[in-house]
UniProtKB/TrEMBL annotation:
This is Glutamate 5-kinase. Gene3D superfamilies: Acetylglutamate kinase-like, PUA domain. Pathway: Amino-acid biosynthesis; L-proline biosynthesis; L-glutamate 5-semialdehyde from L-glutamate: step 1/2. SMART domains: PUA (SM00359). Its main location: cytoplasm. Catalyzes the transfer of a phosphate group to glutamate to form L-glutamate 5-phosphate. It is found in: Cytoplasm.
Length: 369
């Protein structure tokens, strides 16, 4: 069956073709491919990087100290150049574009999330290509998603896409970074994202992109758990977008999981930033991962981070493996008092009680699979 709605993410590495400026000749080719897909009845959402690179180019490569304010300046200048370029390039194919600049705060707050979703749907309903980037000009580290791989996965969830295409400067995910390992082999199919796969995915060394393959794997993991297929491929492979959309074998394909998470759990996974960690013993690990139970105080060995009730935390085992992510019903202070203790001791120790479940299974996404 054909795809209905596709998010295409273009990394800086693709947009600049490895140079220091936007490669407009290649951007028009990518716009053509996306326009053809739209003409074939597939809705396309573009998540584009390149604002900072475009800002540097427009200001003729100023030598600035590497501060947050200067990056924001470059993004503010570059984003307008970037959207101007896309708007002109898509107009060649008779298409309008609409710009959405998002931060984590827009995805975290339910009302803003629904607002962004309505805008995306309205644009698509009018055959207008939504173009998304992080709102780098205003986003501080605290409210940033931080990289466009993760942002594109959240965009795919937001608009209920069925395919996410991450285009980059490599043919896909290799079993080692091909820049430093000439013998590295392309991994064509991934059925499960686990720690051994994460170890293969390195950061970005080109100085152009943010996050490298590590953030692409994070993005793939979020999307596939929401039932969205993911492909990582080269943005310079001829007709790559059409081929991926036609299910030809290009790059690395990640299958979607069979029973996608319900939307509340998708939001827990993709929305709020994690604010701490609960380290748990083997019994709690089995209860949470194998038996799908809530996390009780008895199994908690240590608490890391400062957080309030309702914060999103990682549950990790003593070997540091991430088991689950979920929302805590107790704050960090309370948890340090009751960890390792029986549920019956919560009330006597704290003077109140929000229930036995520290993280209830309905508020938890198990990740060790
Ligand atoms: N296992 C791997 N397979 C492929 N590329 C990898 C791997 N590990 C690290 N990388 C690096 O990831 C880079 C792509 O990510 P990045 O530089 O962030 O580009 P983009 O701008 O497309 O997001 C590649 O150039 C490569 O050096
Ligand atoms: N939002 C930034 C890009 C951040 C980013 O993740 O870059 P990349 O790894 O090239 O996709 C920009 O527009 O410059």
């Amino acid at each position: 069956m054909g795809y209905r709605r596709v998010v295409v993410k273009l990394g800086t590495s693709v947009l600049t073709s490895g140079s220091k400026k936007l490669d407009k000749a290649h951007m028009v080719e990518l716009a053509r491919q996306m326009a053809m897909l739209m003409r074939a009845g597939v809705e396309v959402v573009l998540c584009t990087s390149g604002a900072i690179a475009a800002g540097r180019e427009h200001l003729q490569y100023p030598v600035f100290p590497d501060t947050m304010a200067n990056k924001q300046l470059l993004a503010a200048v570059g984003q307008s150049q970037l959207i101007l370029a896309w708007s002109q390039l898509f107009s060649i194919y008779g298409l309008h574009v609409g710009q959405l600049l998002l931060t984590r705060a827009d995805l975290q707050d339910r009302e803003r999330y629904l607002n962004a979703r309505d805008t995306l749907n309205a644009l698509l309903a009018h055959n207008i290509i939504p173009i998304i980037n992080e709102n780098d000009a205003v986003a501080t580290n605290e409210i940033k998603v931080g990289d466009n791989d993760n942002l594109s996965a959240r965009a795919a969830l937001l608009c209920d896409a069925d395919l996410l295409i991450l285009l980059t400067d490599q043919k896909g995910l290799f079993d080692a970074d091909p820049r430093t390992n000439p013998d590295a082999q392309l991994i064509k199919q991934v059925a499960n994202i686990d720690d051994s796969l994460r170890l293969l995915a390195g950061g970005s060394v080109s100085g152009l992109g943010t996050g490298g393959m590590a953030t692409k794997l994070e993005a793939a993991d979020i999307a596939r758990r929401a039932g969205i297929e993911v492909v990582i491929a080269s943005g310079h492979h001829p007709d790559v977008i059409a081929k991926v959309a036609a299910r030809e074998s290009v790059g690395t394909h990640f299958s979607a999981i069979e029973n996608p998470l319900e939307s509340r759990k998708q939001w827990i996974l993709a929305g709020p930033a994690t604010q701490g960690k609960l380290i748990v013993d083997a019994g709690a690990s089995t209860a949470v991962v194998a038996n799908g139970r809530s996390l009780l105080s008895k199994g908690i060995i240590a608490v890391e981070g400062k957080f309030e009730r309702g914060a999103t935390l990682l549950i990790v085992d003593q070997q540091g493996r991430i088991l689950a992510k979920g929302m805590s019903r107790y704050c960090a202070n309370d948890l340090t008092k009751i960890s390792g203790k029986h549920s019956n001791d919560i009330e006597p120790l704290l003077g109140y009680d929000y229930g036995d479940a520290i993280i209830h299974r309905n508020d938890m996404v198990v990740l060790d699979n």
